[in-house]
Write a structure and sequence with these properties.
This protein is α/β, with parallel strands linked by helices. It has helices at 23-29, 34-41, 57-72, 96-104, 120-133, 223-244, 262-272, 283-286, 293-303, and strands at 6-15, 19-22, 45-48, 81-85, 110-114, 139-147, 165-175, 180-188, 196-199, 218-221, 254-257, 312-319, 323-330. Strand 12 (312-319) and strand 13 (323-330) form a beta hairpin.
Length: 333
């Protein structure tokens, strides 16, 4: 019997805004300090989109897409599906997926969005994986993109120091040799929706951040309760993914987690028995970019040569919903 095809990643790409907002600048805006932010979160700076530049959600996603398609050696006309994970679209409708489709010149792909908070990319990747296994898709562009700066309450020092903007993309194709996505695992629990959500309110922008295209929403979060759920959910679903594939922590070459908080990542790695040398982090430079964090980190690790053919890669995320997920990939052709 022929082996069922798997979905494999054949190209990665990422793009972030030009404007860097450092912890030292935040000290002027709210009652905080570089020392406190670094110790509590691991974040030193983040990227913020600007109205004066081509840095809308669609723009960021399109630039990441071009890079992923270039690596994959395909054109936008080759795509038959575009899936975007985001909670900060440019418009309520049409979808960011359709707007990206126009921006990159894709002619016939089906395009849509997934709203799963910081887990949006893994939810979207799972849809691509399922489509390829079912042979209803051949080449899929999967994106995670956010402009969280547009929904931040810049007077709330507990949240405004955490978040940033950016986009990451992968091109997913069919694999016939057994490599690719080994399995995906998704979960959610809506009973805890009120730990992280948006509210219809508009924040007051400090003059130094007048470049931000502020939306009439504010992000609200219960950080302490969310932290405890995040560590437990990430550790449990990552363990489940490894167990279902007959793997141990020693088999994993690299973990690419959602970049929310260094303390969450450290606690998860400890629970899994995986040394931090095998965990890729970049939140010191970008902060929490929600659904964009994993594909940005994956692209950086890939381009830095940290991922080799045959490596087993663990992607793991947690976000609003609550949602969480894990994916294990055997890298290479």
């Amino acid at each position: 019997m022929a082996m069922m095809s798997r979905a494999k990643i054949i190209g990665t790409g990422s793009f972030v805004p030009q404007r860097i907002l450092s912890n030292n600048e935040l000290e002027i805006i709210v009652d905080t300090s570089d020392k406190w932010i670094t110790r509590r979160t691991g974040i030193k700076e983040r990227r913020i989109s600007s109205k004066g530049r081509r840095e809308t959600t669609t723009d960021l996603a399109a630039q990441a897409s071009f890079k992923a398609m270039e690596m994959a050696g395909i054109s936008a006309a080759d795509l038959d599906m575009i899936i975007v994970g985001t909670v900060t679209p440019d418009r309520q409708f049409p979808s960011t997926g359709c707007m990206v489709q126009k921006a990159i010149g894709s002619s016939h792909a089906a395009a849509f969005d997934i709203s799963a908070g910081c887990s949006g990319f893994l939810y979207a990747l799972t849809m691509a994986h399922n489509g390829i296994r079912a042979q209803t898709s051949r080449l899929v562009l999967v994106l995670g993109v956010e402009r969280l700066s547009t929904i931040i309450n810049w007077q709330d020092r507990s949240t405004c120091v955490l978040l940033g903007d950016g986009a990451g993309a992968v091109v997913v194709a069919s694999s016939q040799n057994g490599r690719g996505i080994l399995s995906t695992h998704l979960q959610s629990d809506g009973t805890f929706w009120d730990l992280l959500y948006s509210s219809y309110e508009r924040s007051c922008l400090p003059q130094s951040l007048a470049c931000i295209d502020l939306k009439p929403f504010q992000l609200k979060m219960e950080g302490n309760r969310l932290f405890k759920h995040a560590v437990g959910c990430l550790s449990t679903i990552a363990s489940k993914a490894m167990e279902e594939n007959g793997l141990s922590s020693n088999d994993i070459a690299l973990v690419v987690p959602h970049q929310a908080n260094i303390r969450i990542i450290l606690a998860m790695a400890k629970n899994l028995g995986i040394p931090m040398e095998k965990v890729y982090t970049n939140l010191d430079r970008y902060g929490n970019t929600s659904s964009a964090s994993i594909p940005i980190a994956l692209d950086e690790a890939n381009r830095a040569g940290l991922i080799k053919d045959g490596d087993l890669i663990l992607l793991v995320s947690f976000g609003a919903g609550l949602t969480w997920g894990a994916t294990i990939i055997e890298w290479g052709d």
